[in-house]
Amino acid sequence: MMKLRAILIMTAYAILVTLVSFWMAKQSYSWFPPEAAAEAKLLDDLFSLFTGLGTFIYLGVIGPFLYSLVFHRASKYDMSDGPHIEGNTWLEVVWTATPLILVLTLSFVSYRTYEKMAVRGPMELVHLHMPQMMQSAYAEPFDSTPQQDIQEAVQSAPVEQINVTAKQWAWVFHYPEQDITSTELHLPVDRRVRFTLRSEDVLHGFYIPAFRLKQDVVPKHDIDFELTPIKTGTYRLRDSMFSGTYFAANQADVVVEPFNEYQQWLADAAAQSPTPAFNQAAYEYSKASEREGATKEKVAVRGWETIPPAAPPIVNYAPKHQPDSPPG
Predict the structure, then answer these.
(1) Got the DSSP string for 178-233?
(2) pLDDT class for 95, splitting at 50, 70, 90?
(3) Strands 160-167 and 170-175, how do they pair?
(4) Angle subtended at Cα 214 by Cα 179 and Cα 196, rounded to the nearest 5 degrees
(5) Closest of 152, 189, 157 to residue 265, by C-alpha
(6) Global pTM?
């Protein structure tokens, strides 16, 4: 009777753990910024899978542990040994094979996701052949638009080429067909975009959280990859690599807009004469130099020496920025 009761309790608990794990997997989608690119869906699905399995394993271990601790503990003055239990070959095979299969499966799924996103690491770029064109990810769309319709529209449209230059500390975006430059990245929604990344100095990290995309930018290497924005809005590009003192100021807005608005922006930018853009790093450096009476070749910020930032980029279009307060 006691054995049947334990089996029923564990069965009910297993069902509860399964339901909670599915719920946690669904909740994990809300922990990220909006899915603004097709690639974002791929990564969110992978994270959801890991969250659900992690919840199931955690609750599956901690539940029986607490149950045994509460209902099967020895009495207060019981100092006798526990029952002698021999090894169980079947049980040992199960608890060895199950984690092995689980780890191999998750590794395969993770690799496939990474491969679909076409993200290249610095060592791979240095030592392996770099393909000229990578397959863009076509994931389930963020909204209710049928996936097949988005794929057909994206595949039939020409690829937008944008050259991205990273330096200490600024992002510069060049649109070669119109020969215009900008410090704000504009992208058309539901159209494939091919970036060519290059660095003028050190390692930088091209990271747009809403796209779930972090691409290392390696000096002396042009890095090509593609993505498909699927949600209009303004997002943020950050430098994810520590590229020097002012790397935190190396940010830019990413504007995803309908194609007609994107074309209008290109036309407006092409009509403007190139002018120096506001650069937060250069602004903070100059203010620190003035305050400390240091030379432009060498200045200390909070005890750290830094190189002078590159000159503010000269571009056709730069957003209007109010300079932040200089570092205290």
Answers:
(1) TTEEESSEEEETTS-EEEEEEESSS-EEEEEGGGTEEEEE-TT--EEEEE-B-S-E
(2) confident
(3) antiparallel
(4) 25
(5) 189
(6) 0.74
